[in-house]
Amino acid sequence: MLRNISPTAFEQTTLNLPESFENERDNEVASGDGAEVHLSYDDFSGPPPQTSRKQPITKPDHPLNNDDWSTELKRLSDGQLELKSEIQMLNKEVASLKDCVVASFADAFKAIKSLSKKQREKTACEVMHNVGVPLIYFFW
Asked: Which residues have a Cβ under 8 Å from the Cβ of 7 and sit 6 or more positions away?
């Protein structure tokens, strides 16, 4: 993928860059003024140079006065309080949902247990009736 890496107008004015780098490079190549680069294996014997990891300090375009800071702080504080109240409301709703799910599962398991018990009794009665053994002896 090709990308345009030419400097912006702002970069050209602040860094005193020529209008067209390509034209200047073409002129150097045509006139033979460009320095030749000769690489040797010694160039790659050491580690590459490390770049600084410090972030450049950027100044805001317009300095904020105390009124702007206090207004911004108030806005952030109000937003924080609103978020806290919404989180508390969501926590209550989640707890309510959890209680509802637990109760629903408890009811479902009671129904399953009851149906299972009825099915076992029905099956036991059918077995005893077919075998001819009284039902009383089966449960002892």
From this structure: 15, 17, 21
What does the pLDDT look like over 26-80, one tens digit per residue?
566 556 555 565 666 666 666 666 666 676 666 666 665 677 888 888 999 999 9
- What span, in angstroms and rounded, lies between the C-alpha atoms of 130 and 122? 12
Tokens matching residue 75: 């806005």
C-alpha dist (Å) from residue 37 to 34, 43, 63, 73, 88: 9, 12, 47, 57, 67
Q: What is the pTM of this model?
A: 0.36
CB atoms within 10 A of CB 6: 11
Alpha carbon distance 108, 105 (integer Å): 5
Burial of 37 (0-12, 13-18, 19+ CB in 10 A): exposed
